[in-house]
Design brief:
Shape: globular
Distance between the termini: 44 Å
Number of domains: 2
Number of helices: 14
CATH superfamily of the largest domain: Type I PLP-dependent aspartate aminotransferase-like (Major domain)
Bound molecules: pyridoxal-5'-phosphate
Largest sheet: 7 strands, mixed
Low-confidence stretches: none
Radius of gyration: 22 Å
Amino acid sequence: MAAPSHNSWVERDAAVVWHGFTQMSCYAENQPIVVERADGRYLIDVEGRRYLDGISSLWVVTLGHRVPELDAALIEQLGRVAHSTLLGNGNRMTIELSEALALRVPVDSPHFLYASDGAAAVEQALKIAFQYWTNQGVTGRTRYLALGHAYHGDTIGSISVGDSGFGTDIFDPLRFPVIRAPGYNNPDWAKAAITLIDRHKDGLAAMVLEPLVQGAAGMLVAEPRAVHKVVTAAKEAGILVICDEVATGFGRTGTLFASEQCDLRPDLMVIGKGITGGYLPLAATVASQPVYDAFLGPDLSEKTFYHGHSYSGNALACAVARRHLDLLDDWNVLANVREQAERLGKRLAETVEPLTAVREIRRAGLMTGVELAPPRDGLRWGRKVCAAAVRRGVLLRPLGDVVVLMPPLTITTQEVNLLVDTLADAINEACVD
Ligand SMILES: *Cc1c(COP(=O)(O)O)cnc(C)c1O
């Protein structure tokens, strides 16, 4: 019997798998790849074709796929225990990871509440910020300040602090209302945010923001000093600050956390995506000591945080995350991010920016958005450029008409060149009126 062809895999896929953020009626037409295995920074499909993973498997992969050291950490932990509950009990590996992270996160005396997805960890942060005030007998601090174009995940709470757009407008009736400042594409966003902080300060539980880069918004990049000023204003007004570093964390912008570049120490920080190097679902809400302390009280009292997920602090995920944190140092990964990010920026400026089909290129570290300039709506240029790149062996996925480049942090010079040259060819092929 012949090996099943790519097409039959796509058909089998579409028959039973419902893909997120994907219109299934035209799933097959948008050049999906069906991955079977991987080799370093390359994905290999069911037909044996290789693709440079230009989006780090949706922003989660850091060192590459099948890292022998991470594989070994996972296998070693399998020999002990895969999972045990964190509700009222502990796990050695979760403790070891938390101790290691505590030395690295820009949060004062941090405490880690684990979840499996970024959205769930955002949800935890929002609920913690709310209860922080009620636990201290403060009433009326029940609202959140969030930014335009913000994306914080897809649960009801996280889409509420997230802005509309991304096709989620139909859920508007389910969203709870928030105070909305402009996003990073508005040059006056910081001034407007500070005005809103001042106006609403007594009613705000927390402000939530993605420091430095609004990723899903299409890589909108802020001035680090502006972010610092807004966060300082929020802190001075007594409002808790939640930094969502799900996308920016673990080296993507050239520092371990983007908060470092903005000189921030948030009260609550949300981490996810790159925490396990792209291996396993793990996220965490990081609370500073004062936030944590507000939840201490008698057993079974109302001060307890009544929230928890079944797979919180999963030992397999924590074992990989623990080893991953060491590898970031041992391999000097952040230095590579800074070096290759600069090369990427330079090569894009030479090769892609001059193309008439390109409106703007935005970048912080290796987080890059190439905004196309279609002459009218409905041309689906973002989609077509990425499909053309996939045909050339580079996996890309757009955000509307912004082509996202988010390569693994270990990317080489040769691969940066491949990424840029492929993108230029794909634009030239696909961006025809
Ligand atoms: C991806 C993302 C999330 C959601 O994380 P999931 O693991 O996909 O739920 C939240 N915030 C930001 C900034 C993100 O980029």
